[in-house]
Amino acid sequence: MKKPQFYDITHSLDQSIAVWPGDSSFRYSLGWDMQKGDSCNVGAVTMSCHTGTHADAPFHFTREGQRVGEMDLSIYWGPCWVVDIPTGSSSVTLEHLKGIDFGIAPRVLFKTGSFPRREQFPESVVPISPELAAYLKQHGVFLIGTDAPSVDPLDSKTLSAHHALLENEIAILESLALQQVPAGRYELVALPLKLSDGDGSPVRAVLKTLELK
Ligand SMILES: [Zn+2]
Question: Exactly one of 11, 50, 54, 60 is catalytic; which is it?
Fold first, then answer.
C-alpha cells in the first residue's frame, strides 16, 4: 500500500507575511522573555483574522452573519478536490469544473496562482465567478477555497462572490498555499479557531493524499 503524503497548504505566519493594504500587520512578541531573565517565554500575537491562510465567516460580509466560532467543523474536514486554473484565466468559471465528480468529494480548492509570493500582496487576482455558487450547491459542494486572498476581485465593493457563496451555503477558505500541490483528490483538514465573535480565523490547512491500494 502506498503511504499517504501530506501537503501543508498554510502560509507561515511571521512579520514578512503580506496583509491586505491598510489591514493590521502581523506581530509576534514576547511578553515574558527568557533572554531578559523571565523563567519562560510567553508570546503574544497581533494579527488580522484575514492574514495568511484563513476561513471567512459570514459575519465578515453580512451584519448578522454567523461568527467563525459557530461554524460547523465538519465543513472543514473531509474529501476535497484541488483544481488547476490555467494561467491567463480571468476568473474561475463553470468551464473549469467539467468532469469533476463532487459526489465523492464535496469540497473544492482552486489553484489560480494569484498569490505567488506570501511577502507581496497581489495587485489583482483570479476571482471566483459568482455564477459558480448555484452550480456548486446543486452538486452538493459546501466548501470552496482559493490561493487568492479573496474570492472576489480585490477592488470589489459588492463582494458578489462572497454573497453568492453564502446564499448557496458554501463556506470559504482564502490564501491557501497550493503551489506545490498537484491537482487531484485529497482529504482536507483546515479547522478555524473557536473565536466566539470572529469574522474569520487563521486555519492550519493540510491535504493528505488518498491511500491507494
Ligand atoms: Zn477573508
Answer: 60
